[in-house]
Design brief:
The protein has 262 residues and is α+β, with helices and mostly antiparallel strands. Among the domains are: 2-40, no CATH class; 115-153, no CATH class; 163-261, Immunoglobulin-like. The chain contains eight helices and ten strands. The protein has helices at 16-21, 83-91, 97-106, 110-131, 133-138, 140-153, 221-224, 228-233; strands at residues 2-4, 11-13, 25-27, 34-36, 166-175, 182-191, 202-207, 213-219, 240-248, 256-261. The strands form four sheets. Strands 5-6-9 form a three-stranded antiparallel beta sheet, with no helix packed on it. A three-stranded antiparallel beta sheet has the order 8-7-10. The protein has a two-stranded antiparallel sheet with strand order 1-2. The longest helix has 22 residues, at 110-131. 7% of the residues are buried.
Length: 262
């Protein structure tokens, strides 16, 4: 690199070692003047004739270095350490003593940590299964596993539910014989599934000639059956049952009715 004496304007060639030794302060070999070599430090000389080298502006904040060339590894010691210190530092482990001791102290707790994680995972799976229990109970593959397990444990699972296997054999609607302004709707229901299932929620819709809904109501099993033991037993596989519903008469516009099972 190059620098220029501010008094005699002599340009000198200078290296990094000379600049670092005196922090940029040098003495002119021509006029013996002391000056700061960093003020006019240049990597290349301008074209001749050379009059003055450019003077660097003073910055209040130090410049940010963004182009790294080398970064020592953690095993390497400080650049300013003495030779003996560097030799002793190379013999040490890459981890300080307190870090190595802390890592060794954690080792016995690994088994308990894994056991705790396994327990939390099982709890999470149990919560997911409980939240989706309705689908598990009605799933044929799940019931093939759950029924034998429950039989050994002495528990009882709820009946499987599959409305698509319920067949409507007959239906009828007529005025109520003893209650004015009311209707009696009767139906015969058969369970075509290979398993017993609970009595369904029955939706009855009444519509007019244009198929517009005039009235609709959903009946829970306890609303059309009075015997709780019958409700608990459900409809046996292949069995038929008669259902009777009492509803208010919606008027002459209601000429058709429809059943849905849920």
């Amino acid at each position: 690199m190059f620098t220029q004496c501010p008094d005699c304007l002599t340009v000198f060639k200078i290296g990094g070692a000379d600049l670092g030794a005196a922090h940029g302060n040098v003495r002119c070999g021509h006029c013996a003047a002391m000056f700061d070599a960093l003020r006019t430090l240049a990597e290349q000389l301008p074209p001749e004739p050379i009059e003055r080298l450019g003077v660097h502006a003073i910055q209040l904040a130090p410049p940010q270095l963004d182009l790294p060339v080398f970064r020592p590894s953690p095993a390497q010691t400080s650049l300013f350490a003495e030779a003996a210190d560097r030799a002793r530092g190379g013999e040490r482990s890459t981890l300080p003593a307190f870090a190595a001791a802390r890592r060794r102290a954690r080792a016995p707790r690994t088994g308990r940590w894994l056991a705790g994680c396994t327990l939390l995972l099982l709890v999470l799976l149990g919560q997911i299964a409980w939240a989706d229990r309705a689908n598990w109970i009605d799933d044929a593959r799940a019931r093939a596993v759950l029924d034998p397990v429950c039989a050994k444990l002495g528990c009882r699972l709820p009946l499987r539910h599959d409305p698509t296997t319920l067949a409507l054999l007959s239906r009828d609607i007529r005025p109520h014989p003893s209650v004015p302004g009311a209707l009696i709707i009767s139906a015969t229901l058969r369970n075509d599934a290979a398993f017993a299932q609970p009595y369904p929620t029955v939706e009855i819709s009444l519509s007019d000639l244009d198929e517009n809904r005039v009235a609709m109501r959903r009946f829970q099993p306890r609303e059309y059956l009075s015997d709780t033991r019958v409700i608990a037993a459900g409809i046996a596989a292949g069995a038929s049952t008669a259902l009777v519903f009492e509803v208010a008469d919606p008027g002459r516009n209601a000429v058709a009715f429809e059943f849905k099972f849920e």
